[in-house]
Design brief:
The structure is a single chain. By secondary structure, the protein is an alpha+beta fold. The protein has a single domain, classed as 60s Ribosomal Protein L30, Chain: A, CATH 3.30.1330.200. Helix content is 20%, strand content 32%. The protein has three helices and ten strands. The strands form two sheets. A five-stranded mixed β-sheet has the order 1-3-8-9-10. A five-stranded mixed β-sheet has the order 2-5-4-6-7, with helices on one face. β4 and β5 form a beta hairpin. It is globular and about 45 Å long.
């Protein structure tokens, strides 16, 4: 199991659940404990502008809720918002590429097939929206039954995946 130095952690930008952050070059973005959620690392390879989005749900459904709307919680609205901000920060919309992580099946239930659990619905919504946006997915580390921590470096496009009890992966 990989660990992070204090200096590494101090230099990373933390992305919480239902949020996204952007960076440029060697600055790293980190999101922890991707269970059924999906982490989308997106960047323009030429400018090094990139962002990491941590979505929680497949789509925004307006309802009578007391909670304020947060675009980044949802695959459909979160991806639109991330693309908008990346372009605003100098990314070329036509060059954007993505890598995915998460969508783990965290709760097994005989009443809900894996294809219908929230992780599968999240992943399906992300893939569908990226297809609509014509943003290619270069790599993915998704599914299975374990949460992941993701570190994304927009400049190189490297996505480091750390999972307790497993070998570290780079995609």
């Amino acid at each position: 199991m990989a660990s992070f130095t204090i200096q590494e952690l101090e230099n990373m930008i933390t992305v919480n659940m239902g949020d996204f952050k952007t960076a440029r070059g060697d600055r790293k973005l980190i999101t922890r404990d991707l269970g059924s959620c999906v982490g989308i690392a997106m960047r323009d390879p030429q400018t090094g502008v990139g962002g990491l989005l941590h979505i929680m749900l497949p789509q925004y459904l307006p309802c009578q809720s007391s909670e304020p709307f947060v675009a980044a919680k949802y695959a459909d609205t979160g991806l639109d918002e991330l693309v908008r901000v990346l372009v605003q920060q100098g990314a070329n919309r036509e060059r954007l590429v993505a890598k995915l992580a998460g969508a783990a099946h965290m709760i097994k239930s005989p009443n809900v097939p894996e294809s219908m659990d929230i992780s599968s619905r999240n992943l399906s919504a992300v893939r569908k929206k990226l297809e609509e946006l014509r943003i290619p997915v270069l790599a993915a580390e998704v599914g299975e039954y374990h949460p992941r921590t993701v570190v994304f470096e927009p400049g190189s496009g490297t996505v480091r995946i750390v999972t307790s009890g497993r070998a570290e992966k780079m995609i």
